[in-house]
């Protein structure tokens, strides 16, 4: 399916149904549950996005930039597990409730720097 012009030009765009509300999603329309698209980046970029937009980290007086690139790469598998546990992922979209972003940000930050001691947690 897709728009007629897309079909004529060979750009047949399939719509993706939201598993939460049932709305169709595509390049020019998204329901309120779309949190990320694969076009925006990989799972690590999505997790960084969650940290950058969460009040949790800033309330602690920290910034997401404190997490080194090596830490992200070392904990990549764990981060992907957290994303798939909190969000519906598939067909190029990440669906979820807005609060799930804060929960993901909290989990990532606690893994990096557990509350209380300020030191990064070993793998």
Task: Give the overall shape, derived from the CA principal axes.
Answer: elongated
Provide a count of the helices.
6
The average pLDDT is 86
Q: What order do the SSEs take from the amino end to the carboxyl end, as H and E?
A: HEEEHHHHEEH
Strand order of the largest sheet: 3-5-4
Helix/strand-derived category reads alpha+beta
Helix content: 40-55%
Characterize the largest beta sheet: strand count, sense, and whether it forms a barrel. Answer: 3 strands, antiparallel
Please tell me how large the radius of gyration is.
17 Å
Beta percentage is 5-15%
The number of E-state strands comes to: 5
- pLDDT below 50 for ≥5 consecutive residues: which ranges? 116-121
Distance N terminus to C terminus? Answer: 45 Å
